Amino acid sequence: MSSWPGRMKSEGFETVWIQLCTGSSVDIRVRYYRRSCDRRNGKRYKGAYAGLILLGVHDRCSPALASMVSSWSALLSSFEEIRQVLCDRGMTLDIKVIRKLTYRYAERARAEQQAGRIPLNDGDLLEGRRVVISTDGGRTRLREKKRGPKTKKDRTRFRGAWREPKFLIIYVVDAQGKQ
Q: What ranges do the domains of the chain cover?
């Protein structure tokens, strides 16, 4: 939970129903985390079940069910057909649930593909070349708009937090060390 944006607070244990690919569902008691500021805003479902995410359970369905539904959505022509196939196997899922599972599964797959990838131009191979990798950083003050009324001079309020961004600089040099 330490790598999540913002500080997360434990809300205790909750019972969660997990839909399995066999058609049955299992109830599991897991700890629910949410950001401290989200309760005041009245927003619902802004937290996460960290234990389920570590097991690969997203959207309250097993990874096997999410994989099966998303692969059928790629093979079949409509979500209605997927619903019919699932009904034949003894599972009743609504079309909205099937759509949500498919889109979020594709989103996670895309994020996993792009993680750790550095885009190269066409024909750029690093084999036999010298690559320089360096880091840089500094301090900058970022203006973030604040909620609430404007000032007397009709200016938008802002929060000026100091940040220390870190940059990773990667470039290729020739034998003489020039770009």
A: 8-114, 130-173
